[in-house]
Amino acid sequence: MSRELMTSGRQVGWGQIGLGLGAAGLGVAAAALLARTTTSSGPPRAPGEPPTVRAGRRLNRAAGVLAAAVLADSAMEHDRGDFKNPAMFAPLAVSALTLVVSAHGLGDPHRGRHRVRHATYVVAAATGGVGTGFHLYNVLKRTGGLDWQNLFYGAPLGAPTAIALSGLLGAAAERVRGTPPGRTPTVLGRPAARLLAALAAVGLVGTTGEAGLLHFRGAFHNPFMLLPVSLPPVAAALTARAAFSPSRSRSRLARLWLRLTALMGFVGPAFHAYGVHRNMGGWSNWRQNLLNGPPLPAPPSFTGLALAGLAALDLLKDHPDA
Amino acid sequence: MWDGEPRANRAAPDDPMRAPRARNGRAPDVFRLGAWTPMREYPESEPVDFAIVGTGAGGGTLACRLAEAGFSVVAFDAGPYWRPLEDFASDEQEQTKLFWTDERIVDGENPLQLGANNSGKSVGGSTVHFAMVSLRFRPEWFKSRTLLGYGADWPLDWREMWDYYTEVEQALKIAGPVTYPWGPKRPRYPYREHELNAAAKVLARGAEALGISWAPTPLATVSAPRGASPPCVYRGFCTLGCSTNAKQSVLVTWLPRALRAGAEVRDLAMVGRIETDAAGLASGVHYHREGQWRFQKARNVVVAGYAIETPRLLLMSANERYPGGLANSSGLVGRYLTVQGNQACWGVMDEEIRSYKGPPSLAITEHWNYEDRGKDFFGGYSYMSQGPLPVLWAGVQAGARGLWGEALMDEMQRYNHSVGLKVVSEYMPQERNRVTLADEKDALGLPIARVTYSWCDNDKRVNRHALGFMRKALEAAGAREIWDQEDDTCHLNGTARMGDDPRTSVVNGDCRSWDIPNLWICDGSVFPTVGGANPSLTIQAIACRTADRIRALARRGDL
Q1: Which DSSP category does B144 fall into?
Q2: A141 touches chain B (CB under 8 A)
Q3: Phi-psi domain of A46 (left: phi exceeds 0; alpha: psi -120 through 50; beta: other)
């Protein structure tokens, strides 16, 4: 019997707040340490590796991070939706494939476009487009149509864009790799680095919209929920500025902010794990609360896009006219 | 902390219905199993600044705000001090323990059904089992006599009330729509609207078909974590006690704050009489606790027992100086009891509805509260989607509809397809509707309340209009086999109305009685009119205002 259990009566005690802040600090520190070896240096550069191959591999990695997030997120959310429509299996299959080819691409030191990888990425991009259509249809057919209720609780409009972005980044990776030596890498006839920087920036802004919508649904009840709506748009703006009017200092600031964004996406699941804990029953009721609480796999989408932005800026450094 | 199984299902280590929990310097920590939180205690022999009778929407809120303002406060409640996590079961019968079901006599042409739907006996009052619907009054209702031609004017300004509504909405973290379709601009609700269940979508479809606005209902249950409250899990037992603490009742919002600010709560403490001294001022309360009558001295007494127990206590406290009961020189204590219509239209849908999922009233239309054209009656009404639980539903089918045997069994088979709309409508204040004392006595030897109620023609007209309109809405949404439930009412107000004139009201705008300056009344009893909206938010807003007024009066030495 717990008769002697006396509390302050406060719902959230100072101890808990301290513990939370401490855990968050540790998470950031751990991520920073990890980031030193991953985000800042990228895949180890093989001796004599051409910049286009290096950029390609880094874009493969960015596409893979996005695909991994989509795989986990769509698996959980579509399971929650009971796979009511067989099409709900599509993003699982496509993102799994995309993840596999991205891993392959990351480890592939060869110059030249890989046909299977490229085709997979194109399918992923198309899947994202079709998925957005499905989600829009789901929202619009609900009573009330395009209102807050359905934006909050219908199929998330922005979610399929993540697999589309993964596909686009991956396809671009393959084209950059296929650039003959001495030529400026292009995608669809445009300078590749700038196009990719723009894509990453647009993706960051879109993902911010998605996070903003869902965090608004959560009433920003935790101040940390403001981070994913404040850091990424700045990163997006700085990336775009650095890409279109490059200067060394602008590029450095953009890189810094992109790394911050990548870190944030990396640490995000820890915050979401805390959010799961705050649902009724916490982690001991994980089967319900993983679906009910904040989605664990969602934040790394920011990491994927930030990595793509970094790859684009690096490519720009090596190919100032790209 | 969470072990899934309400402790009510096991051998209870302490029974909050038999022995008080708030004593020996501690009160239950409502957020943790078996836990306690420190509570200041005041001696009975020393007068406290405020003795508050009742800890519901009026008394609990006021206790918090007065304690936070630095006053010494003891709040009494006849009910038990629950820890929802361990005391609330998913069992409709068990949870009737939340209702005030003491014996009362009802009469009149339309006798009220008392208990489940309109009164609670718990620390936290009926907010422990209310449906959490948190609406603001239409501004014109505060001057309905002048602006709308019926009822009585309130001595309050709607713009001032608007600010207090905001305070309460913040204190309860009301989850409401991003934009509210009716009335003047209001700040955004602190939390977002909940996901609609199928029953709410039926209301929405009906409203859209008839061309009127609807909205997700502003509710006092959180849609995101808040302190130790997890977001609502849509268990659907809201009106029988929320076992997760998602519901922002007085028990889990104002009262923990009150305790931290130094208020004392006395549970299982039934106040039976207010004492007055030689000067005619209130001097304390007699209350029954742990088997004996006791007396607490107080410099001020606040009565907040809701519209039956409040006049009952004032009338029971009659003495030589006040033979008609306390604060009753106008003769209006107990008069103008005003409830709200709670008729419903029910039907059957082809698809599954399962209306028991989630809070019962997730969607609302206040169209007829704000639209005055096309009415053949004074006042207004809102209507909401419904989610009756099975035992209640069987009771409605057997009672209101008269089904029994095979017919009842067949109807219950369609429970998951049933859907309904229920009104909260404005009844007219009538002097003849009243609470008096019967000759019969209760277990403590106190005279029981006699509650007399009759509808006037306007009440009948609003019933007809609402039932007719809801029927059209249900039909438009695709329901069939529609039938009307005509007998229900909800909420109790008006038996100690506020006003500007001591001859026609019991208290002034500050909830201070005209006759006895240190006797206050702070609950739904002070409503001169009731509007077509659930009263809890307004009661709490009035309590906040009263606290501010008391502080201001005290500062200038007018207390």
Answers
A1: I
A2: no
A3: beta
The per-residue DSSP string of A1-58 comes to: --TT-B--S-SS-HHHHHHHHHHHHHHHHHHHHHHHHTTTT-SPPPTT--HHHHHHHH
Give the torsion through C-alpha atoms of A150, A153, A155, A161, to 10 deg. Answer: 90
Q: Which of B145, B138, B104, B107 is nearest to B121 (CA)?
A: B104
Question: For residue B510, is it within any domain?
Answer: yes
Torsion of CA B64, B70, B74, B80, to 10 degrees: 30
Q: Is the dihedral of CA B297, B301, B302, B308 positive or negative?
A: positive
- Residues A160, A91: Cα–Cα separation, whole Å: 8
- Classify residue A5: in a domain, yes or no: no
- Per the domain annotation, does A20 fall within a domain? no
Q: Is residue B536 part of a domain?
A: yes
Q: Where are the alpha helices (DSSP H) in chain A?
A: 14-37, 51-80, 90-106, 115-141, 148-153, 159-177, 192-217, 227-244, 248-277, 286-292, 300-318
The partner residue sitting opposite A282, judged by closest CB among B2, B34, B37, is B2
User: What is the spatial distance between Cα B310 and Cα B317, in angstroms, rounded to a whole number?
Assistant: 11
3-state class (DSSP) for residue B176 = strand
What's the ipTM? 0.93
Q: What is the mean pLDDT of chain B?
A: 96
Interface check for A115 against chain B (CB to CB < 8 A): the answer is no
Which residues 10-49 of A have a C-beta within 8 angstroms of B? 10-12
In a domain, B2, yes or no: no
- Whether residue A204 lies inside any domain: the answer is yes
Whether the CB of A284 is below 8 Å from some CB of chain B: the reply is: yes
Q: Is residue B171 part of a domain?
A: yes
Of A9, A143, A280, the CB nearest to B230: A280
Tens of pLDDT along A62-85?
Answer: 999 999 999 999 999 999 999 999
Judging contacts by C-beta atoms under 8 Å, the chain A residues touching residue B26 are 6
Interface of B with A in 159-198 (CB under 8 A): 173, 177-178, 190-193, 195-196
- Helix H or strand E segment including B252: none
- The number of C-beta contacts closer than 8 angstroms across A and B is 106
CB atoms within 10 A of CB A12: 15
Record the tokens describing residue A42, joined without a space. Answer: 């990228």
Which amino acid type is present at position B493? N
Q: 């509707």: which residue's tokens?
A: B433
**How many domains are contained in chain B?**
1
Global confidence as pTM: 0.93
| Closest by Cβ to B2, choosing from A144, A152, A284 | A284
Q: Which residues in chain A touch residue B173, judged by CB atoms under 8 angstroms apart?
A: 219
> Residue A136: inside a domain, yes or no?
yes
The answer to whether residues A217 and B192 touch, using CB atoms and an 8 Å cutoff, is: yes
B11-20, B31-40, B93-102, B210-219: least confident range: B11-20
- In B, which residues are within 8 Å of A212 by CB distance? none
Residue B70 contacts A where some CB pair is shorter than 8 Å = no
Going by C-alpha positions, the residue among B262, B234, B231, B258 that lies closest to residue B245 is B231
Q: Model confidence over A12-28: pLDDT tens digits? A: 767 777 777 776 677 66
How many domains does the structure of chain A reveal?
A: 1
Query: pLDDT confidence of A34, banded at 50, 70, 90?
Result: low
CATH number at residue B450: 3.50.50.60
Domain range for A152: 48-318
Residues of A in contact with B40 (CB under 8 A): none
To the nearest 10°, report the CA torsion of A8, A11, A15, A18: -150
Domain span including residue B364: 42-555
